[in-house]
Predict the structure.
Amino acid sequence: MNDFRYLYYLTRIDGLGSVRIKRLLDKFGNAKNVFDSSARELADVENISSKLADSVIRSVKDFVDYTIEYDSIVKKLDKLGADVITYEDQKYPHMLKKTYDPPIILYCRGDIDDYSIEPAIAIVGTRKPSDYGKKIAEGFAKDLSGLGFNIVSGFARGIDTFVHKSVLDHSSNGRTVAVFGCGIDVIYPPENKKLYEEMCAKGVIISEYELLSKPDAVNFPKRNRIISGLSYGTIIIESAAGGGAMITARFALDQSREVFAVPGFITSKNSEGPNSLIKSGQAKLVENIDDILEEIKNEVTGISINGKPAVVKKIIPELNGNEQVIYDIIEREKEAVHIDFISENCELNVSDCLVALLNLEFKGLMEQLPGKRFRVSYS
């Protein structure tokens, strides 16, 4: 849990948001290395001022207080049967990691034996849906999860609730994922208590907020970036022009993800959001799941093969002999490996390995980490 411990310490430092922490991790490899660095080294990182670098160094004196908080969280997680996924964890969702502002820590509860959330589609909408909206939401959730997609939503009243229930009631392939705007141990809205218990048994609940965090209004717009960030695309089903679902749509667009919109009556306020997205060309009009599959067919394959969830398709360009051998070795390990390990296992000298690795980076297939470590890129 060391990655969680030191990442948690970083989150306690004023002025260090997820973007700055991500830049520090990219530079120093892991959170512990950040604290082992000098103020000058920290200040060399983009958007880390000398003042903020000094704050990181001074924070070491607060480790005793941080450790008390950390130990308390770990005990609560254990009692709850919950867990964490950190940005440094190999289980961290690849689609979310590719976004600009991914959460550094995700608190998780539910079907935690397998955290695989991909491939995922988000379905969101109004808290006051019409019968038409309910039917469409339930139908899309049922059909897409039946194909093996994991369906992401926000556990809110209305469309979100109908989406989660539909997956739990009908799917044996995909799962449903609820992104909370509060702690994973806080049931909100309270009338969803039974649904919450079902999600803990058969679904997944995640949140970037610590245990016992209240459902403050400011949390929900921010959590919407996670809903869209986990997903290949977001479906908007009924929303006012200023509704929360439209915030999710904007995040999806900013993240270069697909946005789908179900059209509605032009006289209905609930149609203002999706209809405006379609009219402006920001969303594709969808009438059935074929419209969705057509847009993402190049990214996802293997849908519901032998009753198993779909897998993410990685389009691999043509590789030469050394590139293929090295790619296969690193991909097999499922984690970052050192250049010496690569050289030994592919029986090539380090120089030849570095040339092949550079070519793999140019082809978007490899990512170099600090300390001459390499891992497969999922970008």
In short: The CA atoms of residues 185 and 370 lie 36 Å apart. Residues 321-376 form a domain with the Arc Repressor Mutant, subunit A fold (CATH 1.10.10.10).
